Write a sequence for this structure.
């Protein structure tokens, strides 16, 4: 008997028929003797429907007061689906109870629409589990210290599930989704992409942060921080498949490197077309410039990804970085209005038609020349590299978005990712 | 400057266009200098949609655990509409904030799906009003002592609004709805029905309890208990009509009888086809029988309306009462399974095809022969009376439901309700 957390995405919860299947699957696990905590997303389409209504009422950019209300609004989607799942479990003959984030409680900071979980008080949940109940907890949402409802941002239900699994020291957190695992790259771009049976936490973290949509990055960070064994698997297998077979399916995110295992140099190709590039040109090259620019951006709660500062020339330099496309206009306005006047820089220019393509692999630690090979492959395809960013286990390039598919396919082939693992 | 509570029904909140109109109307009142608290219902159709999903998952009669989940589910409708209204108010340039029942907090007992408000802590709301904000509070819902979400039952948003108005000692509570006031009877049954400009609290209480759907009865009880001036008016007037004209429109529920005013003998005809009749036949006529039968019904949280005990014959009597049709089957099962065996009664029989028709009027206190006139009118129409119940200001009869419209029209005419008030 183990404590298991299941997380079901919006597609898996997309209709009452599918909710019934989720209930049957969860009941199967509970009847096998496990203590079950389930974290469902809102029914697919529901969050968009709600936020669409809000947009009709307030077409302009939301102020912070409006973000508070957007969280009040959007959080109802998960509350409804959690209650529905509890009802379906009861109809299956299980004892079940659902909780909203504030009832558990899942404490977050007050950054509406993208809050961060600070703590989880699991006493109530543990009492229910001891009493033999299946506990359903709303994903995506929490409550701040003043009792305001917050949401964790898109994909936040993954983070909720992992955070709950961490707080409860769950044996494993199973993320049920509409794909059957983590692939070497997106099969919609590269049909020869292969499913990985395991992937290291670090690789997964890079892939998530680089735009692979399978798991939300903060959920992977949480899993890493608290060593929560995490498995991505399909919710579209029949609910009554053998539980032992199901428990080994999908992709397991591992925390210990298997010394005996031959690591592939590159495990996957990630890409992301949600970013935009901003350059501040003609910046006086003196100490404090990076902070002056990025501090203002951070104060506006805009996340920055790749950052590059060019070589100085005549005491001036160019400073470039990428942000999410949704925040592109806000960031450019901010820099023009607030930063340029005090910085003495010449100009702010931006480009939203870029993408980031990355190769990721634990094996890159012990192999040289991997980045160079990436650059050669892209060069052979005639693709110009605009920005480069590296870490121990990945190399990312920013290129024109029109070359994205071409770059992904060429790299997938060059690094033998279409071949079965050793 | 006064503290005003507005309540908007589901139809008034039925689309983003209508929500915008609500926001404009509320903003008009706020700009006229009033402190505004607004209690919206869920968007029309939303509660039914949510409960319909639940029914697909669990077609059988809900257990108490399921009722808890139904409240988790249904309460999301009001939370969403409250957030949408706050967003619309912000788009109108108002400062606004929305609260769910647990945030205010609206404390209730734990009778899921029909909880009763026990207390309201208005400190947070008052601070917002002092800071110049419009406060939107979800109707229909509250929170029990264990932090579970509860709902007040259908129409509960009226009760929420009045309870909040009472707790905040509001100057007036305006119930905006899709009718423009309280009528002598339902105009869909009697086209000659007239709107009442005022109605006494006691008459309104009888009309609400007797099936007039304009106001939920508990809201009228609350208004009476705390002397909350209550006005029913239309949300379909243009939002920008003159505020002084609007403030005098609809029907005002008054608490002081105007001595100088000629009271109509009968103010209105109420009717209700949501009831069912249950008879326990052949009951031994001895002390404690009524308690034995009705105590069991009350313990199952089933409300009883009309009660009649017939004359005893051969030491046996018949005992009849009415319950809501939704609880008819539950009550009959209960009596057959639990009460008959210990009571020594012969039989339980029921009839769901009945209706209750009532005449209501403060003037009945000082006029004799009003009930007799009612019975004569029904007799002349050939309508058989099955049960009779009276109070100081009303007389109700239970009749076959097929005669309902006929009875209402005949009584409306006989008591001159189609004539302009004196």
């Amino acid at each position: 008997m183990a404590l298991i957390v299941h997380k079901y995405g919006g597609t898996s919860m997309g209709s009452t028929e599918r909710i019934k299947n989720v209930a049957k699957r969860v009941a199967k696990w509970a009847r096998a003797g496990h203590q079950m905590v389930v974290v469902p997303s809102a029914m697919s389409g529901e969050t968009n429907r709600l936020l669409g209504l809000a947009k009709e009422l307030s077409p302009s950019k939301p102020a912070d007061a409006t973000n508070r209300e957007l969280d009040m609004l959007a959080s109802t989607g998960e509350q409804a689906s959690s209650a529905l799942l509890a009802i379906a479990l009861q109809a299956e003959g299980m004892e079940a109870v659902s909780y909203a984030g504030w009832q558990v409680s899942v404490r977050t900071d007050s950054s509406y629409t993208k809050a961060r979980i600070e703590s989880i008080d699991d006493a109530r949940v543990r009492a229910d589990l001891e009493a033999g109940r299946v506990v359903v907890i709303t994903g995506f949402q929490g409550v701040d210290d003043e009792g305001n409802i917050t949401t964790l941002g898109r994909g936040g239900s993954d983070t909720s599930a992992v955070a709950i699994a961490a707080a409860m020291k769950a044996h494993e957190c199973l993320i049920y989704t509409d794909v059957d695992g983590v692939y070497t790259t997106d099969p919609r771009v590269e049909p020869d992409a292969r499913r990985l049976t395991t992937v290291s936490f670090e690789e997964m973290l890079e892939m998530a942060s680089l735009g692979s949509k399978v798991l939300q990055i903060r959920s992977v960070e949480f899993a890493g921080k608290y060593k929560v064994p995490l498995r991505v698997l399909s919710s579209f297998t029949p609910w009554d498949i053998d539980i032992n077979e199901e428990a080994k399916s999908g992709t397991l995110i591992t925390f210990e490197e298997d010394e005996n295992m031959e690591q592939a140099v590159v495990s996957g190709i990630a890409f992301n077309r949600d970013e935009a590039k901003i350059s501040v040109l003609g910046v006086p090259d003196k100490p404090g410039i990076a902070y002056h620019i990025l501090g203002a951006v951070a104060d506006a709660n805009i996340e920055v990804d790749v950052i590059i500062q060019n070589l100085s020339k005549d005491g001036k330099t160019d400073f470039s970085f990428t942000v999410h496309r949704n925040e592109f206009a806000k960031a450019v306005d901010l820099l023009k209005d607030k930063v340029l006047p005090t910085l003495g820089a010449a100009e702010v220019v931006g480009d939203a038609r870029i993408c980031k393509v990355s190769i990721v692999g634990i094996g890159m630690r012990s192999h040289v020349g991997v980045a160079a090979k990436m650059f050669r492959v892209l060069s052979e395809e005639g693709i110009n590299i605009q920005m480069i960013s590296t870490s121990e286990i990945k190399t990312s390039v920013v290129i024109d978005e029109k070359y994205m598919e071409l770059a992904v396919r060429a790299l997938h082939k060059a690094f033998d990712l279409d071949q079965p693992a050793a």
Notes: Chain B has two domains: 3-254, 258-422. The radius of gyration of chain B is 23 Å. Chain B touches chain A at residues 16, 19-20, 23, 50, 53-54, 56-58, 60, 63, 65-66, 68-70, 72-73, 75-77, 79-80, 82-84, 86-88, 90-91, 95-98, 100, 102-103, 147-149 (CB under 8 Å). Chain B has a mean pLDDT of 90.
